[in-house]
Write a structure and sequence with these properties.
α2 crosses α5 and α4 packs across α5. By secondary structure, this protein is mostly helical. A 3-stranded antiparallel sheet has the order 1-2-3, covered by helices on one side. The longest helix is centred in the C-terminal third of the chain and has 24 residues. Helices cover about 50% and strands about 10% of the residues.
């Protein structure tokens, strides 16, 4: 029941952050699982380094996942993903990725899954609202002291300019 424990800890995070005006609803474990299960891959020949390996084997990974296949996000996070990743989503609502970093098909597949997850997590992040605070008494005094010093410098400049003809 590892997944349920993670979900309960996610709920605790929601309760802790409710005071600050934002919620973290994303369930990372469910998100990772849905990406792995719902991403379909095709492979093709990769260009670049690799010698004969490049010409013989299909190592470049083309991955795509339908937006509806992404689980572990709430509605706000999903709409944020659609907005931020709109350039990587095609007309059929598939989020697409191409990876040819490594010489091995499985390594490129793993990299593609990791990148998809990081894209979705970073796009789904909802920035917390700033909690307004007042400046402390010490910082106000420091600011006023700085202004007073600056004022004195400018006054002294004016008095030092005596024009004698």
């Amino acid at each position: 029941m590892e997944g349920e424990g993670a979900y309960i800890s996610d709920l605790k995070t929601i309760e802790e952050n409710a005071d600050y005006g934002y919620f973290i609803v994303m369930n990372s474990i469910e998100l990772r699982k849905s990406i792995e299960e719902n991403t379909s891959f095709t492979f093709s020949r990769s260009g670049g380094n690799g010698g004969q390996n490049v010409n013989k084997l299909n190592t470049k990974a083309h991955g795509k996942i339908h937006i509806s296949g992404i689980k572990g996000l709430d509605e706000r996070e999903l709409s944020q993903v659609l907005k931020k990743l709109s350039g990587k989503i095609n007309s059929e609502n598939f989020l697409c990725i191409d990876v040819d970093d490594e010489r091995y098909q499985d390594a490129n597949r793993r990299i593609a899954l990791d990148r998809l997850e990081s894209w979705i997590k970073s796009a789904a992040y909802i920035k917390p609202r700033r909690k307004k605070t007042k400046p402390t008494a010490a910082s106000r005094e420091k600011r006023l002291a700085g202004k007073k010093i600056r004022s004195m410098i400018k006054k002294n400049r004016a008095s030092n300019r005596s024009i004698d003809f």
